[in-house]
Amino acid sequence: MIGIDPVPKPRMTQRDKWAKRPAVLRYREFCDQVRGAGMALPESGAHIVFHLPMPTSWSKKRRAEMAGQPHQQKPDVDNLAKALLDACLAEDQGVWDVRVTKRWAEQGGIEIRQGEVA
Between the CA atoms of 35, 40, 46 and 48, what dihedral angle is there, to the nearest 10 degrees? Predict the structure, then answer.
């Protein structure tokens, strides 16, 4: 697992080339971190697990209950996957088989497992 907090891909416009929206800046920083970590995705059989950090406002009891449980809130799984694919690959049209999971965790991270091809 690589300790990079997952960031969803924002909806971007031409204005984002010069405007400094916080969501776009976070996304660009995320892409730089992923490239710097040397993450790679295969064309098929990958299982991507996004570990999303729990809110600091949660009690210790709730944190213990939710650790490893499915994350069923925003950000959407497709936007997280789009951000990772765009960060890892210059051209991602060659990826044809990917499984994506979101889970709660104490600290954010991204895990890429090699699985079976469907």
Answer: -20
